[in-house]
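Section 5: illustrative case.
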């Protein structure tokens, strides 16, 4: 099982988990209580219920480099290009945009 702390505008908003069942994302209760809380995407509105998916959620998969940048990242960190969680953890700590990803324990 691997976990990532997800941030929106540098504010902790929830935890993404990969396990044998697939991917799970749950918004943090403290984040949901904020009046200015923003959803990660239109397909993942703010809710207390966890999101479950067999494959990586599109909002996170879209953060992972593509093309020649994916090749460089994959070769540099020796990560299989199909290991979406590994690539997300390695490449998406400081993304362009509002969302950032940190390995649990690194935050």
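Designed sequence:
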């Amino acid at each position: 099982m691997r976990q990532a702390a997800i941030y929106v505008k540098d504010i902790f908003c929830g935890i993404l988990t990969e396990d044998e069942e697939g991917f799970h994302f749950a918004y943090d209760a403290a984040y949901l209580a904020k009046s200015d809380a923003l959803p990660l995407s239109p397909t993942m509105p703010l809710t207390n219920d966890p999101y479950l998916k067999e494959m990586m959620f599109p909002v996170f998969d879209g953060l992972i480099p593509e093309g020649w940048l994916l090749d460089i990242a994959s070769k540099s960190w020796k990560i299989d290009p199909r290991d979406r969680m590994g690539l997300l953890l390695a490449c998406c700590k400081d993304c362009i945009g509002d969302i950032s990803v940190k390995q649990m324990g690194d935050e």
